[in-house]
Amino acid sequence: MNLEILSRRWSRQSLAVQFLLAGGLVCGVAMLIVGAFVTNLIEASVTRNSAATTALYVDSVIAPILPDMQQNKVLDDSITRALDETLGQGALGQRIMSFRLWRRDGTIMYSNDPSLIGKKFPVNEDLKAAFDGEMSAEFNDLDEDEDVESVAERDSGKPLLEIYNPVLQPWSGDVVAVAEFYEVATDFQKSLELARLKTWLAVALFTVTFFVILSFIVLRGSRTIAQQRAVEKQRYLELLGVLNENRTLNRHLQQASNRVIAYNERYLRRIGAELHDGPVQLIAFAALRLDSKTIVGAISSPEKRLQELSLIHNSLGEALREIRGICGGLVLPHIETLSLSEVLELVVRAHEQRTESKVHLTILQPDISVTHPVKIAAYRFVQESLNNAFKHANGTGQEVRQDLNGKLLEIVVTDRGPGFDIDAINTDQLGLLGLKERIESLGGKFHLESEPGKTTLKMQVRIDDT
User: What average pLDDT score do residues 37-59 get?
Assistant: First the structure.
């Protein structure tokens, strides 16, 4: 369970955090391993070089004193006194704490500790290597497992460099003895500690620099990935929003299609009703007058005939005017080449001429370029709004205002009529459904507000979307 929790927490971290944690741990372990390895190599190399120098120096001092070791298995008193004087005085006496001369069988032929001379000890690995011709050296490596002859050196508490140096026969080069001595290595210890410190600092500096450079690269890459993820997420959200909008628009389109079909049917019935209630009645009246006995009786009376013909002529003329008015409302004038301001002036002047009412037109942004569908929507919007204002508000205080807020085109039609309750009236009866559908098909919005003394209709369309 704990592993699962840690795994989930780990996976929730960013790539940069994961790298900093894992990379920092790996680099730390690598630094310790490499530092320890390099330090050991340097320590072994420095120890061997220092021991070789000391061994060469000691060998150069005692070699002339020693007899032929192949012929003499025991040192006489004169040689022993010479070694005591040489190893106990001067610079060599200050550097060498103890000295032993070994035979191959483990017998000590000479020691500056007289109690050890002639004693025989087990041959350790260092002695074997020295008798094989290899010099060996160790620094401060005297532990409890050492042979009994190293007790004094171990208990001294001084930094010691233990050296096993083979003694060679000058003319044959054979190893005839091994010189074991312990050098007081205070200066060597300081140099070795300084070398260790520099080595660890160099390894740490290299590791930290390497990790910082990699961290910078990873952080920059992680930041780029995070930015790309944010962009992709934003694009995904935008695409999701577009898909939702498409679904909504598709649903609205289906609903609008159904409403348009119903609206067209009602509009046709409305046209039929207007034709029936207006021109048809007038034409029927004229036909009735032609078929009546009055026209027959008026044949003998020129005055009555002229009066009856004038009545029929007026009725037919009025019917013709109403038919033209209805047709004029159905067919748009040619507005393709007109600007939006000219279209608004055209529909306003046509309304004023038809209704003999006054409309105040305000155009705040005359130089606006819009598409033909927007011109048609604007024409029909102003036409229907003014017709409703004339029909329901007697044309009182009719105003048309056009403005541009950024990319949003606004056309507002107001009147100063009595107003009405929007919730209590069916807007389909006002002929506004078609306008609403037409404006929304362009991505625009239709607003209707009414209160006592003022009614406002507004259309808004973004001209960069048209």
Answer: 80
Q: End-to-end CA distance of the chain, in Å?
A: 59
How far apart, in whole angstroms, are the C-alpha atoms of residue 315 and residue 321?
Answer: 10
At residue 301, the pLDDT reads 66
Query: Lowest mean pLDDT: which of 26-40, 189-203, 427-441?
Result: 427-441
